[in-house]
Here is the input.
Amino acid sequence: MDDASVDQELAEADTPPAASATIAYRHRLPTRIWHWVNAVTVFVMLMSGLMILNAHPRLYWGEFGANFDRAWLNFGPRPFPGWATIPSGYNLAAARIWHLAFAWVLVVGFVAFLLTSLWNRHVQRDLVPRRNELAPSHVWYDIKQHARLHFPTGEAALRYNILQKISYVAVIFLFLPLMILTGLAMSPSMDAAWPWLVDVFGGRQSARSIHFIVAAAILAFIIVHLVMVVLAGPVNEIWSMISGRFRIEPERADA
Here is the structure.
C-alpha cells in the first residue's frame, strides 16, 4: 500500500460520522387533541359564520345597524359562494344551528386546554416569551431566518421560536377570548343576563364588527400556519401533531 492510500485511510478514520436525524417527543396529548378538534371546529364556525354574514353582509359600529344606516364595510348582496359556507345553500337558521353548536365545542375545548396547559406548565414553559427573546434584534433575526426559509434544526426545532410564541399567545389569550365574548354580546339572552357585556364593546353592532375582524385575523393565522407547515416539511410536522413524535434534523451551522 502506498503512502497516499495510507494517508487517505487515516483521514477517513479521523472524520466524524455524519449526524443522523433522531426522534423526539414534541407535542403532549392534550395539545394534539385540542389542535385537531379546533381544526374542525374553527373551519365549521368560519364557514357557517360566512353564511350568517350573507344574510346581512354589512358591518356597523355602535348599537344599531340596518339597511339604510351607514356601514363601515359592505360586501354587497350575498358575497360568499356556496362552497365557502355551511350550509352551501342559503339557510340562515341552519347556519346559526351549526355555528352555535360548534361554538360550545370551541368554548369547552378552549377552557379544558387552558386549564390543562396551566396545570402542566405548558403555557409558562413553552409559550411565554423570555425577556431576551423579545429583544428587537432577536425578533428581527427570526424574521430574516423565516424569510430565507432557514428553519430550526437540532434541539432548537423542539422549542417554539419567538414568532410562534407571539402568534400562539395572541390566538390563545386575545383572539379566542374576544371571539367568545363578542359572540356572547350578540346573543339576546346574554344581553338580558349581562347587559354590561354589550356596553364593553360599545354596542351589539360593534361586537359584531369585532367578531368579524377577529375571525379574519384567525383565518390569516391559519393560512400562514399551513404555509409554514408545507415549507418546513408537511409529513414530519403533521405526523408530530398526530403521534407527538418529531424527527429532528441534525444541527445546522448558520451561514
